[in-house]
Amino acid sequence: MIIACGIEYDGTDYHGFQRQPSSHGPTIQGTLEEAIERISSAFSVVHGAGRTDSGVHASGQVIHFHTESRLTPEVWKRALNAVLPNTVAVRWASEVPERFHARFSAQSRSYRYTVWNDSAPSALRGRYSYHYPRPLHIGLMQAACQYLMGRKDFGAFGHSPDDTNPTRPGPHHCVRTMLEARCTQQDNTALIYCDFTADAFLTGMVRRMVGTLLLVGQQRLSVAEFANIVQRAEKTHPGSAAPSHGLCLVRVDYPEKFALPSSQMSAD
Amino acid sequence: MIIACGIEYDGTDYHGFQRQPSSHGPTIQGTLEEAIERISSAFSVVHGAGRTDSGVHASGQVIHFHTESRLTPEVWKRALNAVLPNTVAVRWASEVPERFHARFSAQSRSYRYTVWNDSAPSALRGRYSYHYPRPLHIGLMQAACQYLMGRKDFGAFGHSPDDTNPTRPGPHHCVRTMLEARCTQQDNTALIYCDFTADAFLTGMVRRMVGTLLLVGQQRLSVAEFANIVQRAEKTHPGSAAPSHGLCLVRVDYPEKFALPSSQMSAD
Question: What does the alpha-carbon distance between residue A175 and residue A200 come to, in Å, rounded to a whole number?
Answer without folding.
Answer: 9
